Amino acid sequence: MFNKCSLSDIKELEIWKVLNENNFSCMFSKCSLSDINEIQNWDVSNGKDFSGMFNECSSLSDIKPLENWNVSNGNDFSFMFSQCSSLSDINTIQN
User: Fold this and answer.
1) How far apart are CA 17 and CA 62, in angstroms?
2) pLDDT in tens, 9-27
3) The whole model's pTM is what?
4) CA-based angle 62:64:68, to the nearest 5?
């Protein structure tokens, strides 16, 4: 959706209703995102494909906003955070 955008501010996405979406693959791939707090309350519980969602978001350093996402229906997480070179701590993510 926003693949290869110079998108760095996603404030407007905070109000998006994504409950019925199941494919989030490459949504923010290669974007300049560093802050994803705005999407922390997204209901992604019907999501199945999260592959490459944040692929090559080299400025992304904190994924704590995603800790409450219900991704139990997800079946593809391949390359979700691939080449996120600023990402250093994922201790907040648990099974």
Assistant:
1) 23
2) 687 888 899 999 999 999 9
3) 0.85
4) 155
